[in-house]
Amino acid sequence: MKKGIEVNGTVFANQCDVNNDEFLDKFIAFIESNGLGFGGGSKQIDEDGKDI
């Protein structure tokens, strides 16, 4: 049986806006560079948690 990790949270940039596509590109590159895979989704939100 494979074991995995579920990630649930929000990422905000400290000094500027974060772009969903740019974040995913960097996140997936990090995941794959460590021999891992990712299945899931993401969406852009504002500081109140509302979809943009």
Uncertain stretches: none
- Report the count of strand segments: 0
Number of helical stretches of at least 4 residues: 1
* Largest sheet features: none
The fraction of residues assigned to DSSP E strands is under 5%
Element-by-element helix/strand order: H
The percent of residues in helical segments reads 25-40%
What is the general shape? Answer: globular
Question: First CA to last CA: what distance?
Answer: 38 Å
Rounded to an integer in angstroms, the radius of gyration calculated over CA atoms is 13 Å
- Secondary-structure class: mainly alpha
Mean pLDDT over the full residue set: 92
Which keywords apply here?
52 residues, mainly alpha, 27% helix, 0% strand, globular
Please outline the helices and strands.
Elements (H helix, E strand, L loop, with lengths): L19 H14 L19
